[in-house]
Amino acid sequence: MPDPAASVYLGVLGYAWLWAMAMVSFYLFGTRVWRYAGVLRGARPEKRWDRLPERFRRFAAQVLGQQRLREEPLIGLAHLVIFWAFVVYAAGFFWNLVRGLLPFLPVPYADDVRWMALALAGAGFIGLAALAVAAVRRYAFPPPRLEQSPDAAVILALIGIVLVSWLTGWFARPRLPALAIAMWWLHMATVLGFLAYLPYSKHLHLLASPFGVFFSALQPGGMPAPSEGASRRQEFTWRQLFSGLACAECGRCDRACPAFQSGASLSPKMLMHQVKELVRAPSDGAFQPEGIWACTTCYACMSRCPVFNEHLPLVIELRRRLVSQGEIDARLQEALTNLGRYGNSFGQSPRNRAKWTQGLDFHIKDARKEPVEFLWFVGDYASYDPRLADATRAAARVFQAAGLDFGILYDGEQNAGNDVRRAGEEGLFEVLAEKNRKTLAKAKFSAIVTTDPHSYHVLKHEYPAVNGGFRVWHAAELLDTLLRDGKLSLQQTPPGTATYHDPCYLGRYNGVYAQPRRILGELGVGFQEMPRNREHAWCCGAGGGKIWMEDLPPASGPRERPAESRLREAASLAGVDTLVVACPKDLVMFQDAAKTTGLADRIAVKDLMEVTEQAIAPAREKTHA
Amino acid sequence: MNILVLLRMVPDVVEELEIAPGGKALDADLLRMMLSESDGHALEEALLLKERYGGVVTVLALDAPEVDDALFTALAKGADRAVKISDAGENPTTLEAAYTFAGWIAGQPDLAYADVILTGVQAIDDLDGLLAPLVAHQMRLPYLGIVTRLAVDVPGRVATAIKEYPGGVRGEFDVDLPAVFGIQAAEKPPRYVPVAKVRAAMKSRQIESVPAPTLAEAGPSLVNVVAMEKPQPAEWAAMLEGSPEQVSGKVCEILAGTGLL
Fold first, then answer.
1. How far is A369 from chain B (nearest CA, A)?
2. Cα A150–Cα A312–Cα A450 angle in degrees, nearest 5
3. Which of A28, B3, B38, B240 is 20 to 30 A (C-alpha) from A43?
4. Claim to verify: residue A135 and residue A233 sit in the same structural domain
């Protein structure tokens, strides 16, 4: 085959054609990318250059290895193949482009180098096979919430042409040089066209997502820095806006979102889309308050997103803005007002906080007055909700039976602020945290324990000044250790077969999956896993302040609430008669769902501590549970 | 338009109330004070009027524990000026409070013509709803209570007020301004103001602390507190003891015994 760049077409040299095409393509690509970069530069700063080794490791696993994509195995593998084929083809293209533009370079074209040509051929064939898988999935078996845009068809076609043109040219070389030349130009033109089209399409993710992964949040929960909230373009951080550019519209977030799946007007995918629109053109009012308030902050979207987009920080920024404008649900307003005045959402006197201890036949130390090893941060729901008093007392009896040296803060404890913060009331969170910090500073203890995953998360990760010197335990972690150390003598096996619900703030936020299961195993409880478990656990719908808000009817369709869906899932397991939880809010949510679904006779909802208390009770005694 | 809102701090009944030794008053040491709920509605109505017609909202309160929080919150919500009368005595009666408010307002050249004076129609320690009419009487101004909506013709100096009556009946009144209104409920529930804004107000805004006006010597009080006490379980009340199951069983027995069940 003659040198395509040295041949003459319509009286003009190939070099000139190539230069012209490349300049048009790079101009279109460059101006668009430059505009996006300008928008990001105009956004609020956010530091994402820390912990570089961790970032490189994540990049290797998630960009080069595409770990999360492969959670959906078939399309994940196809995508991985297409990605690597693309990398090989990009290398070949740039090689050929540079060689074509600068003919004086003493190197052959990529196609003329045997090993490179073989790599391109191999990548081309398996790339085409993967492309076929992707196309068949997209058009014959599309998963729900996959965005069916014409854009996707254009991209599939372009990749197809890129691969087929190169392969055809490669085969045509020996016998049909004219066809090979034509294919060479088709290939180059298609890739240049692709490059120009890229920043205008959803395939911008190809360019943006590697950066998105590298600069993704490393701290658990991804809480954005304190701010006055955001609704306009320049009020978001660059990383928050960047999520819009990296989104590939795959719909995994929507499939994982309990709010979306229960018919609320929140679609995390649409949220990303709105952010992308915001980056494209400054606009106001793109975000619907109903959707923003529907989020339960369960983290399922963020833990599933293959490009590590950050939905939650966006929701929290948007909520902060709504809170600062006073645009909040009446019940949430009441809860926040109560929290500000009384330190609890129930609007009860702080003096009643430890009223639940009245049913105990021993005294719990006041950690403010005498030193204790474990300071038990009880939390609002476990303290005040009368439906939870039994479970809270069960925890106290278990701690007592294990010989734990523990105490509580009595009326000195305030709501830890986890959900206040996620409802967007940053100032109130600071006030609550400050009060708790002062109280904790006066107490003598060596570790904190709590049965409440929400308090656990915020105390562990968002109380930096306090958490300098000691560990925060969830009761399940502590119980697991106590059992392993033989601190509890088990008297009987609790009857029945259980399944376990992973609370969002214990599981997805903090990765505590093994301990609760190990405890149930130690206790000898019959156990079955729900289909949606661990990272895929289905949120009960209470988090992020949702438990304080009005329960709105679904925006679309008569779908069931997250807690009902989850309870049915548990009840559908043959033989399972107990749903074990490790979060006070879960207990009230699922007990309520058991009543509304009419499944209360079929399945009981119990706290892990209640089950443990049953196991340590003397065998002859009939337990109240 | 000048809008003046009178704010009162009342005991927070979420906390348990105790009678002071002597048995004639609540134990002030154990009290937590909070803004009277209907005064919160009066403030909201004032802010809505300001949004609609423009003007200046001044909030006025007698000094009391936690009153600063209430005043800064009012500033954060949109009030323009907060004034605290500092030495009006501890636990003034409604009559004393009304005279102090009226006396202070009358002494202010820039507020003497306050076009609209709003306050809650009742407070938990003024269930008679006397404060607003007493202020109006003292200032020789018209008064209208149980108001749930106000519209103002600013140049015409007339307000149209909606007053609620039992049975779902509403009355519409024209009231010459200046006038005093007892607000039952604002048109919208009182707004939420985020803590950050209240804290910002605490840093950047001032509460004007002013001395109480000198009032004419009041004669001897004609109504005196003899005793204040919490309700005692009377003899005809039986306390049912036991677990919820046992108690509910006893309730059923009693109801069956009276023939109600």
1. 22
2. 150
3. A28
4. no
